[in-house]
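debug: dumping io for the single-chain case to check the tokenizer round-trip. Nothing else runs in this session.
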Amino acid sequence: MQFHAQDPKCGDAAVDLNTLGGSWKVPKEALTGDVTCEYTLTGADGKKYQMEFTAFKVGTTDVCTDDYVQVSFDGKFDDNTYKKCGTTIPEKPSASTTNVIKVKFASTSANAGTNTFTAKITEVPAPAQDPKCGDAAVDLNTLGGSWKVPKEALTGDVTCEYTLTGADGKKYQMEFTNFKVGTTDVCTGDYVQVSFDGKFDDNTYKKCGTMIPEKPSLSTTNVINVKLVSTSVNAATNTFAATIKENSKEALRVCTALLLSFTLISSLCEFFIG
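debug: decoded output
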């Protein structure tokens, strides 16, 4: 993963939550001039994290125009992103939706020398789910063949959630090979959702019924989140199977590029040698 160059006084742009320990203090040294520091905090695959400020002085008022801190879970910093400033410790952001937290710290020259904050970032305990759901964490590197859900026939109203994680930098295609979730295509009580950002809302891929649905779009990262919701009426018969494959088109593109490079080098060698 690459990070853009930024003022060394900001500190490390990449922060490993697995080895952070204790508090995270920003910036590394007192800033000078107009400076923007950006950070990517990454924890363990499949985990979610809670950030909480323990010290905070960013600007002098609660009007966050020039000096502020933003916390994002999708990499975007816009008008809807958590944004705080001032001299009192703000309420904590919501828990992260994945194992990645993005932070933007903007300082003007007027306040750069005193702008600072400290935060602790703790892992959010995964909610216990029905053992019949099966493993909540699925390793795509070792999965092999089909993925069948649930592990055993469910009973009662049950929600099963899964985090499927593949190799870093890869994208994956999920395709259903068997599907029976509910009895109709009205997805109110029994359904499956597939998400690439950890969120399950009205815009998330959502399917139900007894026909194999069209496949979701290609994942945007190496992580796929899946939710299976079952009512007691259909819990015992709700099931699906799917294959999850690494994006072959991307692999083919890389192989083709390498082959073309090799061919070009061979041709140049023949030209100069022969």
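debug: round-trip ok. DSSP finds one helix and 16 strands in the chain.
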